[in-house]
Design brief:
With 257 residues, the protein is of the alpha/beta class. It has one domain (3-251): Aldolase class I (TIM Barrel, Alpha-Beta Barrel). Helices cover 24% and strands 22% of the residues. It has six helices and twelve strands. The strands form two sheets. A ten-stranded mixed beta sheet has the order 1-12-11-10-9-8-5-4-3-2. Helix 3 (165-171) runs parallel beside helix 5. It is globular, with a radius of gyration of 17 Å. The model is unreliable at 8-46 (pLDDT under 50). Bound molecules: iron/sulfur cluster. The site of iron/sulfur cluster (SF4) has 12 residues, from loops.
């Protein structure tokens, strides 16, 4: 039996000098020192040596907590920088700019997971990691990071907009639970994302996830500027017809930054 739930917006974390609430997207986490509240002024250092594999991930922040429900698990969250879409209701605009470099090295995340602590708290008991963003599938190091997490005995979660179906297909075998954002009925997708062909990409990603049989939750942020009750009902019906059995409608929240 399917379920379509109206989820309240997650509680906001305190906004400090280098703290951003990413709860509307996934989790609350502390941003590192190279990310400012005016990201256009913080560009990738041009002569930074190239890094390969998981070490090449541009990580904005990580946290030993996660506000996405994962029954039976205690997940941490890693937020990856950069996204090609321009969603009007994006709750994390600070994480969008792909020219902003990472603030946290992957080695630091690994060490924190293994050592039982992060800047934000205790990781003892963490048995899973959710990679979110921004858009995590745009980064080349994602496969290597997921493989390393599996080798560490951690369950792997991924939250994505589905903007890169082929990349998603490549990582699905390494993902234990997937959160896929389906933002609107297809006819409203461009208005939601500001990106042409975004409906095709998102629904192609949904088809891939359904065919793969991965544990899946589809989430829709109910942007009141774009989606009325009839649009949401139409979307819920369409998702059910496609085979989605876990659909959560998330109340929109004001963006920060
Ligand atoms: S896909 Fe996600 S991160 Fe990218 S603009 Fe949209 S809401 Fe923001």
């Amino acid at each position: 039996m399917s379920r379509t739930l109206l989820a309240p917006p997650p509680a906001a974390a305190p906004l400090g000098e280098r703290t951003v609430t990413t709860a509307g997207w996934a989790c609350a986490a502390r941003l590192g020192p190279t990310v400012s509240r005016t990201p256009a002024t913080v560009l990738r250092v041009p002569d930074r040596p190239a890094r390969e594999g998981a070490d090449g991930l541009e990580i904005a922040a990580w946290s030993p907590t996660c506000e996405l429900g994962w029954s039976g698990r205690r997940p941490a969250t890693v937020l990856l920088q950069g996204c090609a879409w321009q969603c009007a209701a994006c709750p994390t605009p600070l994480l969008r700019d792909p020219m902003v470099g990472g603030a946290v090295p992957w080695a630091e995340v690994r060490a924190g997971l293994l050592g039982g602590a992060s800047a934000d708290g205790d990781t003892a008991g963490v048995d899973a990691v959710v990679l979110s963003g921004g858009e995590p599938t745009r980064q080349d190091g994602l496969v290597a990071a997921l493989m390393q997490l599996r080798e560490l005995g951690l369950a792997t979660g991924l939250r994505t907009s589905g903007a890169y179906p082929q990349r998603l297909a490549a990582v699905l075998p390494l993902v234990d639970r997937l959160w896929l954002d389906i933002k609107a009925p297809a006819g409203l997708y461009r208005a939601a994302t500001g990106a042409g062909a975004s409906a095709h990409k998102a629904f192609a990603s949904l088809r891939l996830a359904l065919d793969a049989g991965v544990e899946l939750q589809v989430r829709t942020v109910a942007d009141p500027q774009l989606l009325g009750p009839a649009d949401l009902a139409e979307l819920a019906r369409h998702l059910h017809d496609l085979g989605v059995r876990d659909h959560v409608i998330e109340a929109a929240r004001p963006a920060e930054g």
